[in-house]
Structures are given as C-alpha cells and as structure tokens.
Design brief:
By secondary structure, the chain is mostly helical. The chain is built from 2 helices and 2 strands, in the order H-H-E-E. Helix content is 48%, strand content 7%.
Length: 87
C-alpha cells in the first residue's frame, strides 16, 4: 500500500428490506417522478399531494403486514419523525 494514500471509511448498506415489494416501489417511483417533474418545469399543477400520501400509506401498510407476518418489531416513523413500534 502506498504510504501517502489515505484510508477512507465507507459505510456499507444492508440488503433490501423485506417490506418493499413491487407495489410499494411503484408508488415511491411515481411520487419521486412527479416531484422531479415539478422541480424541472416549475409547474405545481403536476404535483398533487395524493401521490405522496399514497406512497406513505403503501409503505406504512407494507411494514405493518411484514411485521405481523414475521413477528419482528419494525420501527415505523410517523410524519413528525418519531419512531413507533408495532407490537
């Protein structure tokens, strides 16, 4: 190893989470797509909050179902950033 090279620390991300399925991924993609479109075109008529709400609801529901099926406690964050535990 070169004595002048610095060592860099990198964080390694874990694998995919079990509660994100095709439907949730589709909702998240649509939300992000509409947001980018609004930012690029500066037209707020394209953006509707229902896409954000649908994505959040789908994600929350998928986490809940996964938690109930696997009996693992998964922390869920509500809209205010607080962590909630599902029992």
């Amino acid at each position: 190893m070169d004595k002048h090279a610095t060592l860099k620390t990198r964080r390694i991300r874990e694998g995919s989470v079990p509660w994100i399925n095709k439907d949730v991924r589709k909702e998240l993609f649509e939300r992000d797509y509409l947001k980018c479109k609004v930012i690029k075109t500066n037209e707020e008529s394209v953006w509707n909050t229902s896409s954000t709400n649908l994505a959040n609801i789908a994600l929350r529901q998928a986490k809940k179902e996964c938690s109930q099926n696997s009996k693992i406690q998964i922390p869920i964050q509500d809209t205010f950033g607080k962590q909630l535990m599902i029992f």
